[in-house]
Every structure is written in structure tokens, then in C-alpha cells.
Amino acid sequence: MSLGLRIALLWLAPALAVALGLLARRPRASEYLNLAASVAVFVLAVPLPFLHGLPATLLGGYVIVDALGAWVALCVAVVYLLASIYAVAYMRQAAHRQAQLPVFYALFAGFALSMLVAPLVNSVGVYWIAIELTTLVSTFLVGFEHNAESMEAAWKYIIVVSSGISLALLGTALLYWGGSFVYGETYMLTWASLTAAAPHVPPVLLKMGFLLALIGYGTKVGLAPMHTWLPDAHSEGPAPVSAMLSGALLNTAMVGIVRLLAAADAAGQGRLPHVALVVLGVFSLLIGALFIVRQRQVKRLMAYSSVEHMGVLALGFGFGGTLGVAGALYHMLNHSLAKPLLFFGAGNAMQRYGSKRMDDIRGVWGQFPVSGAIWLCGAVAITGAPPFGLFPSEFAILRAGWSGPHLWAAIVMLVLLIAIFVAFLNHFRAMYLEASPLAPPAAPTAAWGAGWRVLPMALALAALLALGLWWPPAWQALFADIARGLGAVP
Amino acid sequence: MLAAHLAPLAASLFSLLAIASLLLAFVMLGSRWLKDYMLAFAAQSWLIGILSAAVGYYGGYAELYWVGGLTVLFRGVVLPWLILRILRRLNTARELHEVLSTSTSLVIGAGAVIFALVVSVRLAAELGLASNVVVLALTVMFSMKLIGFLMLTLRHEAISHILGILVLENGIFLGTQILMPGMPLMIELVLLFDLLVAVACFGVLVRYLLTHIGSTSSRELRRLTG
Q1: Which of A53-62, A332-341, B212-221 tops mean pLDDT?
Q2: A221, part of any domain
Q3: SS3 state at A392
Q4: pLDDT at A118
Q5: Is the pLDDT of residue A436 over 60?
Q6: Which among A158, A212, A296, A358 is the top mutation candidate for probing chain B, defined by the most B β-carbons within 10 Å of its own β-carbon?
Q7: Total domains present in chain A
Q8: Please, what sign has the CA dihedral across residues B103, B169, A253, A81?
Q9: Is B142:B70 a contact under the CB 8 Å cutoff?
Q10: Under DSSP, is residue A110 helix (H, G, I), strand (E, B) or coil?
Q11: Nearest-neighbour CA in chain A from B4: distance (Å)
Q12: With contacts defined as CB-CB under 8 Å, which chain B residues touch A166?
């Protein structure tokens, strides 16, 4: 299969799910259409980073398929598949919204499509637009439950993120202006042309452009202190949407920061861009740790864990070097596997207990013998404990920090990760082992759909376990390749 | 670069349009009536559309006439019409709760302009561009950004937030027209379209806010904390 055809099909599958689902207007049909699209996307995206002939540009240079973009698309595909399987059971349970299901799945597939496009966009300006589109589509998914809380979350999400990434637009404009000193007035600003021109762009424009874009896209990534929309949006959307937001969306915005960092590095901007990224990363870890310790709501717990892990990613890319970049890329996939698992577990608990408060969720063992065990393993995995995939990736990032100029950040990271480990698992201890003050919830009906719920969680856990025990050699070569492409290695 | 070598007439025309847009941003900052914001925003968009055409005329960029025309059509007519439609549905005509008095927010806005001026002068000096138009364009771009953020923080009404975001983008648009007139047409068109979609989304959300929360003021949005 040629690369162009593969990309076309990759985008066509969710697009068809949107169109046919809206035409059919039947809940079951749209459900299976979305599921089929997610399987197709997964099959098409998995080999993408390993194809020969990358990087390649398509569509007159507006699309670039390079290993980095393909890797992020792969993470999106993984989350989309897991979330689509889980959504079948979860959305059926939300019985009062059945008539709206075709709209939900159309938005869901559209959201996946926008996230599959964004990392493969070659033009810096069009990338900004793609990121803005992901916000516009997902706002309606966040507000899908149509109650006061979800409306508040949706409104905060769209306002905070739109105003935040308008800073990235200003940064992009300044970078374009900087490039025009090299290329002349009219040219197409692509990632590659920016990196090539960077050494000749006036340093002040490059610096300002990078910092503005870092703040702008950092808002979308959920780096503290621009993370304020994230806990609300992640906790108020339906669980499959939370999984997509956390596991897939945040990564697609991180790509922009990483690519701009490569341009700043090519210009020999010194340590400023890396220091900025490392500081934001450490601060995100700190905010994540503080709010995880005192959290009372189960999905907000997962949301602050996302802030924490985006901080870890920022640290990985900020530390740089082959090890830092490889660790961050590996961490991206591991987080994309673990976070959906946790949100699915939280969704199960919320629907069974009818509450989001962890004080009400007690005696999970008794309620969920199978999925409860998987959820607990997922909690162990997300805190970075062996034998799961997040342990080697966080360890690689830590090692990268240890040997670089940001030793202080590595030490702070280690301390905060330990604090988060203790606090996070303490919440789970309470949920699993403490006796419930309330009467246990009613036994599930046949509509509960246990199979649809356990399957994605088990798949994610199996992958996490495999990745924790064995870091495939082909991936090491891929990561080293990406690191070289980003200029992280001399 | 166009802005660095301008004929005196063109330079004064660009300056006039840029300063008038900045003043309109202050009109928005100083008013409490939602309809006034909208009218000021529409007028600002018209000025930016005229500016695009003027840059196209003096710089010889034929496609900028298109950009100017579409800016007037989308930002000057369609967006205000959409916002007016949202306004008619609401029963709020003005900001009810003031975080800061009008005069205080105008003074802070003036401070923001001075800050933007200092940054722009430094930036232009570092780039070796002594042209007044460059400094002015940068100042207006940065100060409209800051004023937009001020509006977002000081106002509670949903409509004010939407207009605040639009002012943020108007500032960038104005700056790019003068400083980077050669920006590819395709990007500008998609940006305009994107804005239209964004405002349509905002409109739908405002309606939901009204139905489910019973108010469009962000003072009522305080359920989610911690």
C-alpha cells in the first residue's frame, strides 16, 4: 500500500463514520460504524512509524509523514480503538441520552479525525488551525451530558484554550516574520523550512515566537499553570471522551512544542528554550502532586495525573538527548495506554455507585472482581511502578536529566513522583479496602455490558505489561532516529 | 520589507488605521453595554479590512484585496450578525458586576499599551528597523492582545468573553497585514473560516449555558473546583 493511500484511508475511515452515522441516525448503527472506523484506523496507523521512505510530504507539501508525527498518530489510534470499544457499554448505560447517540459518535469520530490530522500537518499555520479544530469538536463532547457541571466545564475549556492558543498564533506570526528575513515576503512556513532558516532568523524573534508558542500550545497540553481547563473538562465529559482528551489530545499539542524546540535548537538558542520547558514540566509535576494528595473526586484524580504526566513528557523533551527524547516518546505511548484504562475504571465505578466522590466509592473489590483487579494494576502502572511500561520510560527520562545540566529538575521530579505514588495508591487503598458507609449499589442489569468494559482495559493492561518487560529494539532505533531528526543529538 | 520603506502618505494611512483600531479596543474596554462592544468590534474589523486593501494597493499584493473583502464580510458583517443573534436571545444587555470600575480598567489598558510600546521599541531596535510604522504595528498588535486578555479577565458575560477572544485575533490580524503582507492567502482564508466556526460553536454553547445554568455570567460557573 502506498503511503498516500494509507494516509487517505486513515482519514477517510473516521470521516465516513461521521457521515454515515449522521445519515443513518440509528444509535446501534452509529456505534458499530465508529467501532469499525477505530479498528481500521488502528490497523492503518500501527505500521505507520516503521514504514520505509519517511519522512515524506504529500498534498503539495501540506502534509508531512515523519516518524514523530506518525508515532503520535499511532498513540491517537490506540486510544481511539480502546475508547470506542469502551464507549459501547458506557454510552448504552447512559440511557436517557440514547436518541443523541448518533450525534455523540459523529463528534467522537470527528474528534479522532482532527487528532489524526494535526500531528501530520506540515505547515506551522495550518497546524495551529488543526489544533483549534480539535478544541471546537471536543467542546461538545465535554458538554455532552448537558448538565450544569458539564456545561461549565465545556465553557471553561473553550474559553481558556482558545485564548491560550491565540498566543501560539502570535508566536507563529512572529516566526513567519522572522523567516521572511531569510526567504523573502511570501513563502510557506513548514517545520522543515523553519528549522532550516532558524540560524539566520533574528534571535529575538525566534525566542519570542518560541516562548509565545510554548505558552499557547502548553495551554492545550495542560502544562501548569495553564492547566486550569483540564481537570474540569476531563472530569465532566463521558469516560470515553476523558480517555481521548487525556490519552490522545494532549500529545497532539505536544508535537508542536517539540517541533518548535527543534527549530530553536537548530538556531543555537542556548539553554533558554530547554530551561523554559523544564520549568513548566517541574511546575506541572508539582501542581499534579499537590492536587492528587488532596483530591476527593475520582475523575479529577485521573485528570491531575494527566497534568503530572504531561509534565514528565515536557521534562523528557526538555532534558533532550537521545535518552530524553526516547524516554518521552515511549512515555507518550505508555500514558496513552494507561490513562484510558484508568478513566474506564473510573467510569465503571461512577456508573455503578452513581457518584464521582471517592468517599462514596468503597468496596470496589466486591463490586468489580475482574475489572477492579485490572483497574488496580492500572493505578500501579500509572504511578510508574514496575513491571509496567511507565517504569522504563520514566526511568529513561530521569537518567537523561541526571546526566544533563538540569540535575535539580531530575531530583525534584524523583521526589514528586514518589509523593504521587504514595498519594495515588492511598486513594485506591481507600476505595478498595475501606468499608462503605452506604448500602452497596444494586447488582448490574444485563445492559451493563461487562465484556465491552473489561476488554479494552485488559488489552491496555496486557500492552503495558509487555512494554514494561520488553522495550522492542526496533523502537529504540526509531526513537534514536526521531531524536536525530529533532537535532537532539549532534 | 514593505513597512520599512513606505511612502509618507501610505505610512500615515497605515498609522491612522492602526491607531483607530486601538482606540476602538479602548471603546470596548470602557463600555459596559454588550451592544457597544459588538459595534466597536465590527468597526474595528472594517478598519482592518480597509487596511488589508491599503497594504495590497501600496505593496502590490493583489490577493490582499480578497483578504480585505473577506475580512469585512466575515468579521465586519457575519460575525457581528451572529453575535447580535446570540444577544437577542439573552436578557442581559450589559455587564452587571464590575470587577474594576471603567476608569480603572482604562488606566490599566493604557499601562498595557505603554508596556507594549516598550517591548516593540526594543524589538524593532534589535531588528535594526527604525521605521515608525513597524513600531506602531507591533505596539498595536501587542496591546490589542493585552487588552483582549484584560477584557477576558475583567468581564463576566459570555458575550464579553467571545468578543475578548475576537479582539485577541484582530490584533494579530492587524499586525500581520502590515508586517507580513506576503503571508500565504490560503492560511488567511482558513483562519477566517476557523473564526466563523469558532463563533458558531460559542453561540451554541451560550444557548446551552442559558438552558442549563440559567445565566451566561461566569460568576455562576463555580461548581468545579479543586
Answers
A1: A332-341
A2: yes
A3: helix
A4: 95
A5: yes
A6: A158
A7: 1
A8: positive
A9: no
A10: helix
A11: 12
A12: 145, 148, 165, 168-169, 172
Across the interface, do B182 and A187 touch by the CB < 8 Å criterion? yes
Residue B223 has pLDDT above 90, yes or no: no
Q: Is A406 among the domain residues?
A: yes
pLDDT tens, A76-106? Answer: 999 999 999 999 999 988 766 788 899 999 9
Please choose, from the candidates B202, B154, B14, the residue with its C-alpha nearest in 3D space to the C-alpha of residue A132.
B202
Give pLDDT, residue A471. Answer: 87
Residue B216 has φ and ψ, to the nearest 5°, of: -110, 20
Residue A63 pairs in a beta bridge with: A58, A121
Query: For residue A490, is it within any domain?
Result: no
What is the rounded CA–CA span in Å between residue A99 and residue A258? Answer: 41
Domain-wise residue ranges, chain B: 9-217
A290 lies within 8 A of chain B by CB: no
The answer, yes or no, to whether residue A446 has pLDDT greater than 70, is no
* A197 occurs within a structural domain: yes
Helix (H) or strand (E) holding A253: helix A250-266
Q: What is the ipTM of this complex?
A: 0.93
Q: Which residue reads 523553519 in cell numbers?
A: A194
Q: In this model, does residue A490 exceed pLDDT 80?
A: no
- Gap between the Cα atoms of A310 and A217, Å rounded: 12
A268: left (phi over 0), alpha (psi -120 to 50) or beta: left
- Could you tell me how many CB contacts below 8 A there are between chain A and chain B? 124
Does residue A230 surpass a pLDDT of 70?
yes
In which domain, by residue range, is A370 found? 3-485
3-state secondary structure of A295: coil
Q: Which residue of B has its CA nearest to A235?
A: B224
- What are the cell numbers at A334? 505508555
Best of B64, B165, B172, B224 to mutate (most A CBs within 10 Å, chain A): B224
User: What is the model's pLDDT at position B60?
Assistant: 85
Compute the nearest-CA separation of A126 from chain B (Å).
7
